[in-house]
Amino acid sequence: MKIFLTETHAHTSEVSPCATCNSKELVNLMIKHGYSTVFITNHLSEHTFSKANIKNWNDKIDFFLEGFELVKKVANGRINVILAMEISFTEEANDYLVYGITESFLKDNADMTNLTIDKFYPLAKKNCLHVIQAHPFRFGSRIVNPDFLDGYEIFNGNPRHNSNNDMASSWAKHYAKTESAGTDFHRPGDAGISGMYFENEIVTTEDYIQALQCGNFIIKK
């Protein structure tokens, strides 16, 4: 039986200041390591925008989306490329992976980085988004009310951080939340560390969310 490998958590240097791989390098590495799909989860945060010296909200979103569009252009159909984000709020230290976002959602909700998770989550659900706390037990992160989350990243493969993945897995099961896993790709050596295997190819965000909710996957680690 053929299975399909998806990268759920990846950054490119054109947008995320912490990444060293550009879009072309990311695409080539993903294909080399057998991924059929990659979610581009660049950082949507005031830190990101301050590094780029951008102040206007629409300009911020145009900058953020340019990174995704560049990956799609480079991929040229060789791998599925899906838009997502890793959002950080100015009043919190946490990171949240959000799937299902669109340009209109991002532009219609100006300054969403100034919200908190309890204010953002109802907005996300109104727009049919799926919200996952990234690396919830990494040092510096804090646990939030699970009522404001759809799931937890139970395996984060970033080799430069201890994400206490076992704790995250137990926590997700305890609260019956969806579970995700990803490399948290930033650098060339990160490629291939993690991801999720699915029986069906993930072509859309809806495919991904449905597979998460069904629990129909195998985690690569």
List keywords for this structure.
221 residues; alpha/beta; TIM Barrel; 7 helices
Count of beta strands:
10
Largest sheet: 10 strands, mixed
Please indicate the percent range of residues in DSSP E strands (runs of 2 or more).
Answer: 15-25%
Question: How many angstroms separate the termini?
Answer: 20 Å
Report the structural category: alpha/beta
Spell out the CATH superfamily. Metal-dependent hydrolases
Order of helices and strands: EHEEHHEEHHEEHEEHE
CATH architecture: Alpha-Beta Barrel
Compute the number of structural domains: 1
What is the CATH class designation?
Alpha Beta
Layout of SSEs?
Layout: E1 4-10, H1 23-32, E2 35-40, E3 43-44, H2 46-51, H3 57-75, E4 80-87, E5 96-99, H4 103-108, H5 117-126, E6 130-133, E7 151-156, H6 165-174, E8 178-182, E9 195-198, H7 205-214, E10 218-220
Parallel strand pairs: 1-2, 2-4, 3-4, 6-7, 7-8
Antiparallel strand pairs: 1-9, 4-5, 5-6, 9-10
Describe the structure.
This protein is α/β, with parallel strands linked by helices and 221 residues long. The protein has a single domain, classed as Metal-dependent hydrolases (TIM Barrel, Alpha-Beta Barrel), CATH 3.20.20.140. Helices cover 32% and strands 22% of the residues. Strands 1, 2, 3, 4, 5, 6, 7, 8, 9 and 10 form a ten-stranded mixed beta sheet that branches. Helix 1 links the parallel strand 1 and strand 2. The chain is globular and about 50 Å long. The two termini are 20 Å apart.
